[in-house]
Design a protein that fits this description.
Blueprint (H helix, E strand, L loop, with lengths): L2 H30 L6 H27 L10
Helix pairs in contact: 1-2
């Protein structure tokens, strides 16, 4: 793999880790301020965070383990 490809992969991984870290911060903020939120707003926020967490875990795992990537084995 060329250096350009390695740097692109590294930058992509760092961005995904940063996005996941921001998601963790959103969870912390939601839990700290849960008493200020009311009924349906709180449940919509938590549902959105759960969906974002599942998607975030999927993309992070895809980055680490290569899930869904097409590998050219006929070189």
């Amino acid at each position: 793999m060329s250096n350009k490809g390695k740097n692109k992969l590294k930058d992509n991984l760092i961005l995904k880790q940063l996005a996941f870290f921001v998601l963790v911060l959103l969870w912390i903020a939601a839990l700290v301020f849960k008493h200020q939120l009311t009924g349906p707003v709180k449940w919509l926020l938590y549902a959105g965070l759960i969906i974002l967490t599942i998607l975030g875990l999927y993309y992070i795992n895809r980055s680490f383990f290569g899930i869904g990537e097409k590998h050219d084995t006929h070189k």
